[in-house]
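This part of the workshop introduces the protein records we will be handling. An example says more than a description, so a record of this kind follows:
>
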Amino acid sequence: MAEQTTIAKSTAGSTLADVLALVLDKGIVIAGDIQIKLADVDLLTIKIRLLVAGVDKAKEMGIDWWEKDPFLSSKARDEESEKKIEELEKKVESLEGKSKQKS
């Protein structure tokens, strides 16, 4: 008996949600350069790089800058505040030590 091979075809179009889910899952990179020259002299160069991906995919690629940005992350903001407090405490201790030496 001969084996029958079938080819699956999609008759329904992809919805925006399907495309967005695919892009966020796999990621997409858009790159471009804009250069403005006058008489072979570079006046302006703009390099544009855009990566669109889901959070999990970005982390998988080693991109997690938003977790360390105090403007975007309360955890990073708290860590930055703790670091500033520690620096101030060290400065106070240093000043107290200097004032004791003068006395």
